[in-house]
Amino acid sequence: MDQTLYVASSNPGKLRDFAVAAQVFAFDVAPLPGLRDIPAPAEDGLTFEDNAVLKAMYYSAFAPGHIVIADDSGLEVDALDGEPGVRSARFAEDAGFVAEPATDVDERNNLYLLEKLASQGSGVKSARYRCVIAAACDGAVVMTAEGSVEGEILLEPRGSGGFGYDPLFYLPALGKTMAEIDLVEKQSLSHRGKAFAALLAKMRENF
């Protein structure tokens, strides 16, 4: 089997996370060739699995004979009834939230999350990161895998690593946020790392 897995994402954070895990299983990870020129499909699924599967199937048609992986992941905050969930990447955008001096999507999403939580009062804000990864070949799903990690949401960001909600996602057992741990440690703990490791283990068993 070809040891290269094409990733249907140009997000440098995701590609970095995937590459670290892939090394353990002797796979290579590379962005899907020509991804920038491929129109993105509508991510209108109701669950993380829905979106991961539809993206993997769609993008695999552009790499005949190769396995293409796609993930959908996000943050579920209990105090917000599971929001932002599948809309994690578009949380602030969906609400028309604009804040200055927010400079990028991640920062706006974090600021909007903090604004929504401000009305929930004090106390621990339990949450989890959840991820589903799907692998497809020639338009058909090969397999899926899921991973999650439990944590809490801080009221102010900490750390400069990671991306997305990592500066707010606190791991009580470590006393650190996802943005404060190194890549190797993050890969073993993160939702995406767990899902990807589970997917690679399944692939090793079945191919």
Key attributes of the depicted protein:
alpha/beta; single chain; 7 strands; Maf protein; 207 residues
Report what the structure shows.
The protein is of the alpha/beta class and 207 residues long. It has a single domain (4-206), classed as Alpha-Beta Complex (Maf protein), CATH 3.90.950. The chain contains 6 helices and 7 strands. The protein has helices at residues 12-24, 48-60, 91-95, 105-118, 183-189, 191-206, and strands spanning 4-7, 28-31, 67-77, 126-137, 140-153, 169-171, 176-177. It has a 7-stranded mixed sheet. A hairpin with a 2-residue loop joins strand 4 (126-137) and strand 5. Helix 1 crosses helix 5 (183-189).
Helix content: 25-40%
How does CATH name the architecture? Alpha-Beta Complex
Q: Strands of the largest sheet, in order across it?
A: 2-1-3-4-5-6-7
What is the CATH T-level topology? Answer: Maf protein
What's the SSE pattern?
A: EHEHEHHEEEEHH
Shape: globular
Pairing-aware structural class of the strands and helices? alpha/beta
Number of strands: 7
Strand content: 15-25%
Mean pLDDT: 90
Gyration radius, to the nearest Å?
A: 17 Å
CATH C-level class: Alpha Beta
Sheet of most strands: 7 strands, mixed
